[in-house]
Amino acid sequence: MMNPLELFDIKGKTTLITGGASGIGLMATRALAAAGCRVFIASRKGNVCEEAAAAINAELGEDRVTGMLGDLSSEQGVADLVERVAGQTDHLDILMNNAGATWGAPLGEFPWKAWDKINTVNVTGVFALTQGLLPMLQINASADDPARIVNLGSFVGSRAVGNSAYSYAASKAAIHHLTRILSNELAARHITVNALAPGPFPSRMMAFVTEDEKLADMMRAEVPLGRLGQPEDVTGAMMFLCSKAGSYVTGAILPLDGGMAAKP
To answer: pLDDT, tens digit, for every residue of 136-191?
Structure first.
């Protein structure tokens, strides 16, 4: 019988996390690097990824994180990122599609470009990158230890709440559905596909709320568990989905929202 603690061992796995230098992506980067993974992080601000990688490596006393440029807003940007990753490793065990963007404007004033820009990064870029990296994800994948894809959805992808971020909410609903579609299509290739659906976490995207104590208190009041998300919440979810413990889970949209998606 396997030691229960060994179920969560992901040491030695190779990972790519888009948007891995900030917010939930950074929380996941720190968690997987501390667990012994080799982690590549990429975003449109490659220098920020390099700085974050250097800081984490210094904390760990070991070079486990590599930062690089990765732009999901164009077909060429995605192709360049695939090539960049392939130049560093011949395989991937874990892909976390975390990078995203948002835009807020009142209904009646919401611009066309905001719809295109957000969905290009949040949906088209995620699909294109996943597709481009499939050969690398399949190399070490097996029935006993599948490769893992973890997409970042949102609780707003499951609730009819726009909050003036219409394209963002629609993009996250699309990610939830895409996650289920790909989970069916990739199961035979020994690749699991799941999504996290977080509620409010401290992040650059949520800074306008979390850094204003009055707004933060109002947000906490909206969360049934009465608090914002913490790094440990992301760590627990990622360790489960990416380890032996989660090897039989695919097509799941894991709520990481303190109960918000279940509110009537």
So the answer is: 999 999 999 999 999 999 999 988 876 789 999 999 999 999 999 999 999 999 99
User: Candidates 2.60.120.10, 3.20.20.70, 3.40.50.720, 4.10.910.10; correct CATH number of 10-256?
Assistant: 3.40.50.720
Q: Kindly tell me the sign of the dihedral angle through the C-alpha atoms of 233, 237, 238, 239.
A: positive
- For the chain, what's the residue count? 264
Task: Choose the catalytic residue: 40, 127, 155, 168.
Answer: 168
Clarify whether 168 is annotated catalytic: yes
pTM (predicted TM-score):
0.94
b/e map of 160-199 (b: 16 or more CB within 10 Å)?
eeeeebbbbbbbbbbbbebbbebbeebeeebbbbbbbbbb
